[in-house]
């Protein structure tokens, strides 16, 4: 049985996300937790305590893709809402605020491996051809 939506099932998430394109491909991660499980998503996530936006996206890109950022350019903000069923069958209404950066990485050099830690929501990174990214296989951002 699914619980009814109410104010306790609302969550607002704000994070920083990198759009990294090279050779007509986009760098994405494979989600293993949350409302986008099983979909591709932009690398990124929430800020840690006392972290700036730029520090956060640099860290997130390294943690989730293994790449080091060479250049960053803030390109704006978007927001959207999704409704999803959590593990305990609670329906959550999620307001997602995404601060977007155009990022360049050195595609010839992986500087670190992808970090594994409790709560990691990425199952690795991939370079997808732009035409491979669809509404059916990707998060809304």
Question: Gist?
Answer:
This protein is mainly beta and about 140 residues long.
Low-confidence stretches: 1-5
Oligomer: single chain
Order of SSEs: EEEEEHEEE
Tell how many strands the DSSP assignment holds: 8
Strand order in the sheet with the most strands: 5-1-7-6
Radius of gyration: 15 Å
Largest beta-sheet details: 4 strands, mixed
Q: Could you characterize what this model shows?
A:
With 141 residues, the chain is mainly beta. A hairpin with an 8-residue loop joins strand 3 and strand 4. The chain is globular and about 45 Å long. The two termini are 30 Å apart.
List the keywords.
9% helix, 45% strand, 141 residues, four-stranded antiparallel β-sheet, mainly beta, 1 helix
Helices and strands, with pairings:
Layout: E1 10-19, E2 21-22, E3 25-31, E4 40-41, E5 44-45, H1 53-65, E6 69-85, E7 91-105, E8 122-129
């Amino acid at each position: 049985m699914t619980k009814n939506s109410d104010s306790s099932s609302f969550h607002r998430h704000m994070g920083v996300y990198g759009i990294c394109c090279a050779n007509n491909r986009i760098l994405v991660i494979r989600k293993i937790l949350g409302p986008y499980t099983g979909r591709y998503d932009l690398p990124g996530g929430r800020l840690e305590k006392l972290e700036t936006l730029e520090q956060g996206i640099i860290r997130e890109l390294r943690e989730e893709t293994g790449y080091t950022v060479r250049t960053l350019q803030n390109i704006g903000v978007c927001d959207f809402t999704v409704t999803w069923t959590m593990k305990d069958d609670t329906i959550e209404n999620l307001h997602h605020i995404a601060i977007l950066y155009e990022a360049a990485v050195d595609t010839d050099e992986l500087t670190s491996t992808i970090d594994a830690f409790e709560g990691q929501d990425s199952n690795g990174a991939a370079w997808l051809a732009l035409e491979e990214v669809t509404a059916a296989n990707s998060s809304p951002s």
